[in-house]
Sequence to fold (529 residues):
Amino acid sequence: MKGRSVCVVNDLSIAEQRELYKIAAQVKSRISAGQFPSDTSKSCSYLMFFEDSTRTKESFRNAAATLNHRVNIFDASSSSVNKFETLNDTVRMLCGYTPSMQSVFVIRSKIEGLCRALSDSITEYTTRVGIETPSFVNAGDGRHEHPTQEFLDEFSFLEQLGNDTRSIHIALIGDLLLGRTIHSKADGLCLFDNVTVDLVAPPELHLPADYIAKMKKNGFKLNFFNSLDEYLSSHSVKAPIMYFTRLQLERMDKSMLEKETELRAATTLRMEMLHRLPVGCKIYHPLPRHGQLPEIPFEVDTTSFNGYDEQSRNGYFVRTALLGLLTCVYGHSLADPPISPPRHPRAVMPSISDAVGPVDHTSLNEFFLRIAAANPRHDEAWIDVVFPPKTTPAEVRKNISRMRVLSDTDKLDGYCQVTGNWGIHSIPKSLVDDPNWLLFFNSFFSYCESAEIIFQKSELEFYKLSCKMPHVVTDLPGLGCPNTACVCHPDMKQRDVKPVFEQVSGNKNFSCRFCEKQVNGRDIFQIQL
Ligand code: NCD
Fold:
């Protein structure tokens, strides 16, 4: 797994996750018996924490030291990041200080998708200059994911379940809206064949729709409850694994903070509730818990319900196993070669399918040139773009204006039909060679779920093309992720990260390559008119 990055849970296949848990169990028993790894490679760990942390940072620091890594603690408060440097520039420079070593960057930040963006750009850089490609490990990025917490949580559940992966029944209680450890469960629980999840949170803190959809798609059975009281007094069978999270106050807006008392009441465990928990039930929490208003009363610590102390200890063993895998101390038995996440292609070209008439071109540019050559005297083409069924004429007009501004083709004459179609006519031939045309069409293909383009060759001859949405959309002006916490959003000040959207299989949405937010083709263009 040398040089692999772990930006989200799914960057490790289920087989690799199982291998990680197997190695973590060996690490735990050996280290508990006083045996530390001696055959370690020349490796280096950079810990870059831009958000507060105790467990994640300290367990990684101890794990790296256990593996004899050179451990660098990046001082975020006094670095050039404060002089408006981008993190890409910072990390590229750090790579130069450990030239012949295998490096792992462990990064926590409020910037969602940061590790993926760094992994993409630094891989390009190290390949170009011929130095070792480092790994990037996401130690928590905003509300998005916390994959290594997920791995240690799953490892702890496996210990409770005696390594039986046939089924799991878990209750997730607390801030399901903003808690990244909860969001990572939508993929992490796929380790089990049958998964039942009881989601316990007041409406304000409900799990976001994207994650509910993901859990359903992954085949999880879901039950919803608005408070812990409601859950424990319901007739449903209670989960033997209860996973609490704290309110993520630092990510809440004012209106949410005003409701803190009620939100807390709905998600806090009280001692008199314990007798309603199933026999053998374990309580987990990624920690920290609130010191004044604890989600789990301190009195639970000394009971058999306490699963959180062992869970937090497991962070050290699982992270030692993970760092060891990424720097080739462990994992020699892994059979399959690593599968890197797909790199997006450089050029974005629309695919032209189903060309009717004497056209057999594969690129729109080529197609335009042929039109111009075949029809030297005729100065017009007609393009009819079909919008998604419920698009209103006003929306069509507004978005056509957006597309024109984006592609700088505002000289075009156009009209809108009430049916939701839109046509442009009288295209001057001079525009055929204009590269902005390609931008214009790429914008259209991203925007429309389907598009039919009719070029009029002469009075009676037409070319008709059905165009597909591109698989990857990047390099277009005005493109941007609507998530203001995403690494490619201007608010995050990482100007060197270009937005990339990948088509979601099975529906017509795009997913941001970095923060994974799903958006439709209309919302990937952040242009205000
Ligand atoms: C979690 C985190 O940072 O997301 N804590 C952790 O990593 N141990 C959960 C939290 O802060 O509530």
DSSP finds 15 helices and 19 strands in the chain. The two ends are 47 Å apart (CA to CA). The longest strand covers residues 102-109. The CA atoms of residues 400 and 422 lie 8 Å apart.
